[in-house]
Design a protein that fits this description.
alpha/beta, FAD/NAD(P)-binding domain, 27% strand, flavoprotein, five-stranded antiparallel sheet, Enolase-like, domain 1, globular, NAD, 3 domains, FAD, 32% helix
């Protein structure tokens, strides 16, 4: 088999990898991207954007159901999941087409197939349409992504549960959806399906949903879920599963009072992710993994193999966000041009797209306590922001952590309408290193949600 040499090969076409490939190709380097299935990665195909598309459809359904404030018939428009799915698929198709066009414009070659290392920086690709190609490269980038984890619970795999992929392809409203996992994905989809009309039960192994957040944040999110009619079961162990998702399925949970059954019709597993690093010859390439199978990288994204880098969520201790992957691209681009950027230098935000949203950047109160750092905490109820009085979206609160000995903003959390947008303003202040007083005294437009930042930071204790 003839060996083809490239200046750079990216394995996986997720966000950071594809932008890096386009940049290198436009810079005159012969560049190839090897992708098994999802052109553009999981974000535009099966994760971030499709889920937010259907979450928005669920919000529309919820607004229709509450149209009684305008004297409309609240039950006049049943949810048609086929149309929900069609709307989502149309968006995905348009984004994939735009991605393919950018490959064409950049000059980067997209190779559809499964890549496996057969020697350092040498990849054998089994093409999806038959045949093989052998590639070598001066530089290789591992943009491998992750997939949903299925816990080793007796009967769970046999029940053929949904992951987020299948949940976004339903053409019917499940009569009773059971969600295993109280993290971001589980809560977003639980609320969406409740709004589509499903009865929903969330089963959380830890003491409360959103185990990484402060207790007051998790409690407020839980109240929202319960108020929408979702059954939230926390602090239990999943002991077994019987039946088949899509028909009849029962989850055996172990509580302090003994075992009991949760009966439903459909089962969604949202208990975390595992990296796509197995069976592709990384050991042959000299790439070491951590104890959980993630690619070991340093803060410049260099792996243990010469001239091999990691990108995105397949990397150890890496935020599993598309915006983190995109910044990986910028770090690599800048460092190849002589820069000195590192992942340790960045301030990473996140947003959970429930309604209302939960957004955070920087430390939580738990983080400050674990570090032994004294902080001042300011809090403002969302209802105190006048914008919420115009929309009725009064649920939630803002919270800021300020250093005890100076005026640095160490963290910001918001659970409320437009939280992701408000977050950006605080993140910019934190990035610039300005004191909280600059945000407190800024002239912010009225009536907006961001206007609440004036009042929030005016509440900082002395």
């Amino acid at each position: 088999m003839e060996t083809e040499h490239f200046d750079a090969v990216v394995i996986g076409s997720g966000n950071g990898g594809m932008y890096l490939a386009w940049h290198m190709a436009e810079s005159g380097l012969r560049t190839a991207v090897v992708e098994r299935r999802w052109i553009g990665g999981s974000c535009p195909n099966i994760n971030c954007l499709p889920s937010k598309n259907e979450i928005w459809s669920a919000k529309v359904a919820d607004m229709v159901r509450h149209a009684g404030i305008l004297c409309a018939d609240e039950d006049s428009v049943p949810v048609d999941m086929v149309k929900v799915r069609e709307r989502k698929r149309a968006m995905v198709t348009a984004m994939v087409e735009a991605t393919l066009k950018q490959y064409e414009n950049s000059g980067a070659e997209l190779i559809m197939g499964r890549g496996r290392f057969v020697a350092p920086r040498t990849i054998s690709v089994r093409l999806n349409d038959g045949g093989r190609r052998m590639l070598t490269a001066d530089r290789v980038f591992l943009n491998l992504g992750t997939r949903a984890a299925i816990p080793a619970v007796p009967g769970l795999r046999a029940a053929r549960p949904m992951t987020s992929i299948e949940a976004l392809e339903r053409d019917y409203v499940p009569p009773h959806l059971i969600v295993l996992g109280g993290g971001h994905v589980g809560l977003e989809l639980a609320q969406a399906y409740r709004r589509f009309g499903s009865r929903v039960t969330i089963i959380q192994h830890g003491p409360h949903v959103l185990s990484g957040e402060d207790d007051d944040v998790a409690a407020e999110v839980r109240r929202m879920l319960v108020d929408e009619g979702i059954n939230v079961v926390e602090g239990v162990e999943t002991a077994g599963v019987v039946g088949r998702s899509g028909d009849e399925v029962s989850v055996v949970i172990r509580t302090p009072d003994g075992e009991r059954l949760v009966d439903g019709t459909d089962l969604l597993v949202a208990t975390g992710r595992i990296p796509n690093t197995a069976r592709i010859g990384l050991d042959i390439a000299g790439v070491e993994l951590d104890e959980n199978g993630y690619v070991l990288v340093n803060d410049r994204l260099e792996t243990t193999a010469p001239d091999v880098w990691g990108i995105g969520e397949c990397c150890s201790n890496h935020p599993q966000f598309t915006h983190a992957s995109f910044d990986d691209f910028r770090i690599l681009r800048d460092n190849f041009a002589g820069g000195d950027r590192a992942t340790s230098d960045r301030l990473m935000p996140f947003c959970m797209f429930t309604d209302p949203e939960l957004a955070r950047v920087g430390w939580t109160e738990k983080d400050a306590a674990e570090r032994g750092v004294d902080v001042r905490v300011a809090r403002l109820e969302a209802a105190a922001v006048l914008r919420t009085q115009t929309t009725g979206e009064t649920r939630g609160f803002m919270k800021a952590l300020i250093a005890k000995d100076d005026d640095r903003i160490l963290g910001f959390t918001m659970f409320g309408a437009q939280a992701g947008e408000v977050l950006a303003a605080v993140q910019m202040a934190m990035t610039a290193g300005v004191p909280y007083t600059a945000v407190r005294d800024a002239v912010l437009a009225h009536p907006t949600m961001a206007e609440g930042l004036n009042t929030l930071f005016a509440n900082v204790p002395p």
